[in-house]
Every structure is written in C-alpha cells, then in structure tokens.
Amino acid sequence: MASLSRALRVAAACPRWSPARGLGLRPPTRAASPTAEKSVPYQQTLKDAQDPSAVARGPSRPLPSTANVVVIGGGSLGCQTLYHLAKLGVSGAVLLERERLTSGTTWHTAGLLWQLRPSDVEVELLAHTRRVVSRELEEETGLHTGWIQNGGLFIASNRQRLDEYKRLMSLGKAYGVESHVLSPAETKALYPLMNVDDLYGTLHVPHDGTVDPAGTCTALARAATARGAQVIENCPVTGIRVRTDDFGARRVTAVETEHGSIQTPCVVNCAGVWASAVGRMAGVKVPLVAMHHAYVVTERIEGIQNMPNVRDHDASVYLRLQGDALSVGGYEANPIFWEEVSDKFAFGLFDLDWDVFTQHIEGAINRVPVLEKTGIKSTVCGPESFTPDHKPLMGEAPELRGFFLGCGFNSAGMMLGGGCGQELAHWIVHGRPEKDMHSYDIRRFHQSLTDNQLLRRVPP
After folding, report:
1. How far is the CA of 389 from the CAs of 206, 417, 425, 441, in angstroms?
2. Would you name any one GO CC term (predicted)?
C-alpha cells in the first residue's frame, strides 16, 4: 500500500501518476457507472441493499395523484425537509428520489458535524442538526443514526486564527456550546500524535462529532412516513408544469415523472448536484456548479483511537476519526469541474486526481507526522455542489411561485441539514423562515448573475 509521503513524492515527480495504478491500490469506481462497493468512513451503509442492476426500475410505491408539497431529492436536505414538514403537520408531503436515498452525494460524505461557525444563525442551525441526529430521531424511531461524539479540534497556526477561535468560544458560550482554547502543551496532551511546534493554540469542542449519512436518512424517512409523508424511490422527475395566473405570476402546478404526474402547488428542489437540471425544468436558474470533492482513508494508526476530529482552516485540511484510522480531506484549491452532470450517476465515484489532492497530504503530514509512513487504504472522490459565495441556496425562487430551493450546500449538507430543513419547512408553511436566513436566500443573486457559466469567474 502507498503511504501518504510516497504519494506526495511520486505525484510531484510524475504529475499524471496515480497510486491506484502504480502501487496496487484498489482503484475507485469511475463516474460512468454506479458502484455497489463503497469505501466510506462509516460501518452502516447501504451496501446491504440489492445490487443496483437488480433493483426494479418501477417506483417503490404508487404515485399519489396530488400532494401539498413535493420534495425532489433523497439526500440529507431532502430527507430533513420532508421530516420537518411532517413535524409541522403538513399532510400529503411526498419525496421523490430518482434512485435510492443518499445515492447522489450524501452516501459518500464524511459526515462531520462542527458546532461552531462565525455566524450566530449558523450556530443555531448546527445545534438543531445535532439535536435531531444525536437524540430526537432515535427517540422517535428506535433507529441509531450513527452519531459518534468524539469532539472537534480547530487548529490555530497564527495569532489571527487564535483570536478568531477565541471569538468563536465567546459566541459558543452565548448559545450553550461548550468549548475551550488550549495551549500547544494542552493540545499535545489531548492529541499525542499531533505536531504542535508551529501552533499558537487550538479550540476544543468536546461535543462535536460525526454522523452516518445512510443511518440518518433512513431514520428521517421512517419518522416522516410515520407522520403521513411518503418516500418514493426509483422515480426520476422529468418535468415541472407551471401556469401563469391572472396577475402574470408563474406558479407551479404539477411534477411529471417517468411513472405519472403529481398535481401540487409546491416543489422543493433538494437535488444537490442535479439541482440546476431540476431548475431548468421549471425555467429557474440555479447558481451552483458541480465539482470533484475527495478524501482518502488511511490504514490503521496505533494510538489514534478516540481522538477528536481535526480542522486546520489555514492548511485547508481535516482529519476525521474513523475507528483506528483517519479520513483526510479538505477543500481543493484547484478543483476539477464536473462538466457534464449525468442523470444516470448513482452511488458512483471518480478517479482521484493526485495533483489536486497533494495540498491535503502536505497539511496532514505536517499536523500528524505519523501519517508520513501510514498506508492509504482507499480513496473517495465524488461529486459535490458549490456556490459562488460558499453559502447554500434556499427559499422561493423569485421567478416562480411555489418553487423552493434547498441545495448548494458546499459539502456541509449533513451538518447544516437539520437546521436548514427546519427553516425551509417553516418558510414553506408560514411564508418566511423563523431565523434571519438572508445570507442563504436565493434572492441575494440577481437573475443576471445566476448563469452557471459566470460562476467560475466569481472569487470564493
């Protein structure tokens, strides 16, 4: 097996080299075909489902003729939105998933949940997600969501970053989030394998953790259907019907699928990477782009058990505990765009481009030096949707009444899903969200700036 350091050296010497090809690593599945074998950082997955080729192509249940709300997309946001609509008493809510739940992006997510972000609204959104996945769903359904509370550690390698984390700690106190600023020596005592020589300090949040996306979405679907909602899998959406009312406003009237249509006044676009395609069906431009987003899973590391998850914002790398190993990833500085988003893509992965991933290897080895000699067990490179300002897209599209967005979560859909699903459900039922969601509102983008070809020119 290749070690991270060897991958770094060889990738630098041979730009097109891949350890999957040169050192016998199992190659990841290509984008062209789905995979039933998934190297993901959790034990409970959808691997026990039928082979995709054996799954019946018809819908998992008959389509209703009408619905008060139709949610499109069975990932984190779609399931959370359906669940919260049901909790608000919306009868006749339906979720349509073209394949199976989590099959697009959600299934391969790392599932990290940090409780602190610079925005007070986001702290509240994260707190609600944590309540749902760590307690409420299991109490309602008896199903375990895969929640693991091992804590989180933010790295400060300069004075400015440490000052930011001190402000985050103060913000957390106002919202009941326990956190502590640690010295380098205290950090070393907490995480003995960490290099602290270049640190000014860290922010430790003991109640951060991780979730299992498959377990969470299964529990959400169970809880929603128990309240009268319907989840229909294997049912691709093919069109959205609209009409113009007497005042000249365009309104949603129905959702068309390969297996029939559903009359509805409200559609929620939670299709993730495919949200732009769903938007085009309704004449709505959705300002997001699809990119390759990756992490690698290491071999066993002695002494890593029970360590907190690590986030180094300056190095743009995270280290997620996975039993006795680590998942290593981060935001790519020079990402690869998925130019032609396939509507047949499900439970699939791309080949990892090691030229792009090199920056994460460097940051990870610097922070945890034992990784230099640790083997790479598997690679996970899948699609993710990103927006120009790194904020989600939510709310009613200004050009079409009854067409709501819940997409573009920039790889944070699991951790923000509970809070945003609750706000989106409130938005639909009561006409506005409970919290100040202006920074997420789709109306922040003028329609002249929603062409996806322009997004690549907008700085992050």
Report:
1. 29, 18, 23, 12
2. mitochondrial matrix
349-370, pLDDT tens digit by residue? Answer: 999 999 999 989 999 999 999 9
Q: In sequence order, what are the residues at sequence separation of 6 or more whose Cβ sits closer than 8 angstroms to the Cβ of residue 247?
A: none
Report how far apart, in Å, the C-alpha atoms of 81 and of each of 32, 70, 220, 438, 455 are: 30, 10, 9, 18, 27
CB 80 within 8 A of CB 325: no
Quote the tokens at residue 442.
């789709």
Give yes or no for a contact between 136 and 294, defined as CB atoms under 8 angstroms apart: no
Beta strands in 164-223 (DSSP E): 180-182, 201-205, 209-210
Cα dihedral across residues 40, 315, 372, 18: positive or negative: positive
With beta carbons less than 8 A apart as the criterion, state whether 199 and 315 touch: no
Give per-residue pLDDT as tens, 98-125: 999 999 999 999 999 999 999 999 999 9
What is the CA 219 to chain-centroid distance, rounded? 17
Q: Which long-range contacts (CB under 8 A, 24 or more apart) does 174-183 make?
A: 174/120, 175/120, 175/123, 175/124, 175/127, 176/127, 177/115, 177/116, 177/123, 177/127, 177/205, 177/207, 178/205, 178/206, 178/207, 179/115, 179/116, 179/203, 179/204, 179/205, 179/206, 180/204, 180/206
Q: Can you give the three-state secondary structure of 378-400, one letter per residue?
A: EEEEEEEEECCCCCCEEEECCCC
Neighbours of 214 (CB within 10 A): 25
What does the alpha-carbon distance between residue 218 and residue 86 come to, in Å, rounded to a whole number?
Answer: 15
The answer to whether the beta carbons of residues 297 and 327 sit under 8 Å apart is yes
Query: Rounded CA gap, 414 and 146, in Å?
Result: 12
Q: What is the pTM of this model?
A: 0.89
Which tokens sit at 447? 């329609």
